User: What shape does this take?
Amino acid sequence: MDTNKLIKQLIKKYGTSNPFKIAKAMDITIVYEDLGSSWGYFSNLYRTVIIHINKNLSYEKQMLTCAHELGHVIQHPEHNMAFLKANTFFSTDKYETEANLFAVELLFSDNNNSITYEEAVNTYGIPEQFLKKFLPQKGTYIPIKGGDN
Assistant: This one.
């Protein structure tokens, strides 16, 4: 399914683009813990989905991480990215790109507010190359949905 269409369906269903609120509505537990240099990951054990987020990140980076992991939960529920990266030669690049695109489109889905590419890179930690590759039509400013929704 098209990422943009999926995002619109989620926002319509849950009445928000806030990844924390969507996760809560989906009965996904969010755990904040010290993950060192890792921003986060998700686990699914006995049908209990948990998104693990590094407690040392800024709120904006935690929001991006939650949206990214939510992208994995929704788009790739059967794949354990951490296991695949650590124990196989399977390339997870496609899945990571899809989760990144999901996160950016979810967070930046509203045209009422906007931030610059620089703010997206510095505040949210989104790689500038990713923004330029996947959102080039948006120009210097990109829309962003506030965290209160």
Summary: The domain at 3-143 is CATH 1.10.10.2910 (Arc Repressor Mutant, subunit A).
